[in-house]
Amino acid sequence: MKKIDNLREIFQNTKHRRPCHIYCPRCASPKIQLNSSLAVWLTPKQYYCPECGYIGTIVMELEEDPQTNQEKTET
């Protein structure tokens, strides 16, 4: 039971992420895309950038800050 409790704690503490924008780590282009359709289930995700020719598994992610995206309300 101790292992199950530890696993349950890990799942509770895992941050649930919203989809975020990805960019090329070499040229910062937002046009980066998956290199192959097999890259999702057979091998690690590999990305391709048509702007600079980058091919690799590392991408930059931009997460939106929920505090700055809130609409200002005037009273």
Structural write-up:
There is one protein chain. This protein is of the alpha+beta class and 75 residues long. The protein has a domain at 17-62. The protein has one helix spanning 2-13; strands spanning 21-23, 33-34, 47-48, 55-56, 60-62. The strands form 2 sheets. A 3-stranded antiparallel sheet has the order 2-3-4, with no helix packed on it. Strands 1-5 form a two-stranded antiparallel ribbon. Strand 3 and strand 4 form a beta hairpin. The model is unreliable at 71-75 (pLDDT under 50).
Q: Summary?
A:
The protein is built from 1 helix and 5 strands; from the N terminus they run αβββββ. It has 75 residues and is an alpha+beta fold.
SSE blueprint:
Elements: H1 2-13, E1 21-23, E2 33-34, E3 47-48, E4 55-56, E5 60-62
Antiparallel strand pairs: 1-5, 2-3, 3-4
Total E-strand runs:
5
Helical content band: 10-25%
Q: Any low-confidence stretches, pLDDT <50, length ≥5?
A: 71-75
Average pLDDT taken over every residue:
76
How many H/I helices?
A: 1
- Mind summarizing the main beta sheet? 3 strands, antiparallel
Distance between the termini: 53 Å
Question: What value does the Rg take, in angstroms?
Answer: 18 Å
Shape: flat
Strand content: 15-25%
Oligomerization status of the protein chains: single chain
Class inferred from helices and paired strands = alpha+beta
Order of helices and strands: HEEEEE
**Which sequence of strands runs across the widest sheet?**
2-3-4
